[in-house]
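FIELD: query
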Amino acid sequence: MCTVKWFEMEDLIRLDYNNKSWIPLCAYTTLSEEGNYGYDGYKEEFFVCVSVLFPIDKKDIALKCDWGEVNKMGDNKPYADKNRYVKSSYFSSYDDGIEGEYTVLQQYFDTGDKKEWYLSEEIILALGLKRKGDVWCRPEEDYVEVVRLKRNSDNEPALLEIKAEFLKDYLCARNAGLLHYFYQSRNAVKKEINGIEWDNNNKKMIKDWGMWEGIISEIVEGGNPFGAKIKVFHAERTDVDFDEDVPVLKGFPSDDNVKTKSWEYEYKGEKLIHITGEIWKKSWIVPAKTSIRVRNDKLDSKIEFITDVDGNKKVLANMGLESRWIWFSPDVVNEILKRPNGLLVWYTEDTGNLGTSKLYSVHFGMNEMGLVTVYAKDIGELPEQQQKIWAAYNQTPDGKVSKELLMSQMSAKPADTLSPEKKLYEIMNICDIEFNKYYSTNFLPITEY
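FIELD: result
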């Protein structure tokens, strides 16, 4: 419903992207559209956004930049002359000379090819992102979606946004903040105005965060200004012989070889009302206090594990020199193997390596009760997100620590046994090789163990 609140954008004036879980880095998109422009019932909302990274101590100067400076109008092509070369990601203010970096580079093609957007390589490499289609994920955290690109109906880039948690981690490591600047408009065409009373059909608000403006104008069906006239001027050369094979024009246009005429045209049609609300708003995205991904800051863990038969819990990082083992339900194995890079490798009959990836795996052992036992320090050295997975399956000790695990870790004499799983794989592999010799195909779809 096109109410006065919708046009006056109270929701956008209150909006603070520091409290949003996803933050747009670049946008050029129609958020919604109904009807046909210039006709009764038309309603449209449009959104444009750019973002520039600045040193944290340049916040006050950065917030003085205006929309015309920051908005590259859809293209970040580098600038070059005989004296200098300006990189595509480089930003410099007209007045203050403050320097920053664009987080998204836009490329426009004069040939009519679809435009392209490129996420900053610094963000990709710093956060360890991998692109899959229009999504950048982080393999180290179970391929969690970190950045996503949305396209319009023409398959052109329309909105690129990043998960706030990861952006702020990156900003912290860079000792930087982000100038977030957006323009948003809300338009409607109606036969009459209801509940909107702006002096002289105009209202404006200018604040530290930017500007809002509302405008009411009269149009005729089709969108042209009501009562407006246009003057048309037509000029033609009279000294061109259309029958000549190679016509040549002699001299510049003059009264002798040019004929002119002019006329007026008035736009006519039913009078309609065009109502517009527009906002230009800038904000400063603050960095996180720590950077656990880019700078590898260590956090005081709050994850507790049961460490004794009384059910007492401790944060593993607070155990000091105390050495213990921790017991887990065997269901933790299935939970970890659900992960994209889940890993289970058997060393002996009852010991092996288990984790969400080679980087985040631990040496484990199965005890006589079928529980998974792991040296506490090994779990404590895992990242916080990894510890949460294990903590969900932690339980009170039942049975002893895996004998074969103790033999390996304490006696430095690994058990001379083989796991049935590993032996089965070896036998299946032998069968498959022999089967392939005779039938030139695999007997079983075996993958590397």
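FIELD: remark
Residues 420-439 form the longest helix (20 residues).
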